[in-house]
Specification:
alpha/beta, FAD/NAD(P)-binding domain, 6-stranded mixed beta sheet
């Protein structure tokens, strides 16, 4: 077991959680990430971690880092208001996985994504290699896997795990038929620091706005304390970037409904959004309009079912790399974290007994079942969000 070495492609939430789980189980690992630095680009802002995601984090992280994760969660009310674009109440359209009245969601934690990544990086920095874009791999006769990177580096490992997200290069090679489909929708998101001035009516927990054919969410992120102080208290040595309280917003809907084309993904979406939101309440328009261009990102919504099978061996996948899903259900990261926990636990058990190949089959069967349930829930959520007026 001491010689077994896992190479993880991708230092997103899933890949880093797996790395922490392996560290805890005493299994050797290294993570290879294409971005040159942890904060090279916006990977998102507010992320909601449900009870399953929290259980996975608790199982993989050391107790003090898990306590830090909890302490850095937003303290603003999580109960949601479901409103029209004029900020009047609506009923009956919330996806079940968002319903704040459901017992299952009572303990969701909203955290800042970069902060969660920084916590997940803590203590394993020496094993996370940035600037290592994965290119390809070759399985060797002795059961090991040789892996090549854009940096010309080459490594050998006993297990190669693709946690490289929705555009996974590892999935392209291992399971080319599992390519996710473009749903035709887009998610545009951004943040504005507090105070909100004239838009202070949005400084109230979560506001979900159901418009004709698209949906917007505004989520207040108010933190208990300065992150540097929290890190000193719970996990000295963990470097957290200070984050000011902010309002997160995201708009999701079919591209044509939002007045965007396939080529617009890297352009400033605000002019198109001005048209979409022209009849909306002034607070909503103001927040979107005054978001700094650098704080806005747009992503096409893709969905990929994990039913493709691949030859058993020493290569596998987790997270969005094999089961991308619409953010409408808020389940993608939670499912990736559960994959990470399941894979680290299954590997630890198997290495102590029968060996890794059986472990992979068990993990993959479990991952497929879990992901199909999450994708179904996300699709139901998306259908509800994009309802149009008859
Ligand atoms: C706006 C928005 C809001 C969301 N909110 C939620 C939410 O509240 N709750 C929730 O559960 N989910 C949410 N999701 C979904 C969630 O973000 C994803 O499901 C989650 O990030 C998947 O994690 P991952 O580790 O599989 O992939 P990623 O987080 O995408 O990480 C993949 C990593 O691999 C790296 N990589 C890519 N290619 C290579 C390569 N060739 N070589 C090396 N490294 C590579 C990438 O740079 C990246 O760091 C949201 C998504 C969006 C877009």
């Amino acid at each position: 077991m001491q010689d077994f070495h896992v190479a993880i492609i991708g230092a997103g939430l899933g890949g880093l959680c797996l790395a922490q789980g392996l560290k805890r189980a005493g299994i050797r690992f290294d993570v290879y990430e294409r971005d040159p630095k942890p904060d090279s680009r916006i990977q998102g802002y507010r992320i909601r971690i449900d009870a399953d995601g929290q259980r996975a984090l608790a199982a993989c992280l050391p107790a003090n880092l898990f306590a830090l994760f909890q302490a850095t969660a937003s303290i603003s009310a999580s109960a949601g208001r479901f409103l029209t674009p004029q900020l009047l109440p609506v009923t009956g359209r919330a996806p079940t996985s968002w319903n704040s009245d459901a017992d299952d969601d009572a303990g969701d934690l909203s955290v800042n994504r970069q902060t969660l990544r920084e916590i997940l990086l803590s203590g394993i920095e020496d094993h996370v290699h940035f600037g290592h874009g994965f290119i390809d791999y070759r399985c060797q006769d002795d059961g090991s896997v040789e892996t090549r990177f854009e940096s010309h580096a080459q490594i050998r490992c006993n297990l190669l795990v693709g946690a490289d997200g929705v555009n996974s290069q590892l999935r392209r090679l291992l399971a080319p038929h599992a390519r996710p489909i473009d749903t035709g929708s887009i998610c545009i998101y951004g943040k504005v620091d507090l105070p909100l001035g004239d838009a202070a009516d949005l400084e109230e927990g979560t506001t979900v706005v159901f418009a004709d054919g698209c949906t917007a969410i505004f989520d207040l992120m108010r933190f208990d304390d300065d992150f540097t102080k929290l890190a000193e208290r719970f996990a000295p040595g963990c470097n957290l970037t200070p984050i000011r309280d902010y309002l997160y917003w995201a708009l999701i809907g079919p591209r044509r409904r939002l007045g965007l084309t396939d080529d617009d993904i890297d352009r400033d979406p605000r002019p198109a959004l001005e048209g979409v939101t022209q009849d909306w309440h002034s607070s909503l328009k103001q927040i979107i309009g005054r978001t700094d261009r650098h704080d806005i990102a747009a992503l096409p919504v893709r969905s990929g079912r994990p039913d493709a099978l691949w030859p058993p061996g020493a290569v596998t996948l987790l997270g969005d790399a094999i089961h991308a899903m619409s953010p409408a259900g808020g389940l993608g990261a939670n499912t990736a974290l559960m994959d990470a926990h399941a894979l680290s636990e299954t590997l630890a058990n198997a290495l102590a007994t029968s060996g890794a190949p059986n472990a992979l089959l068990l993990y993959e069967a479990d991952m497929r079942e879990r992901a199909i349930r999450a994708i179904d829930a996300s699709e139901r959520g998306a259908a509800m969000l994009f309802e149009t007026k008859a």
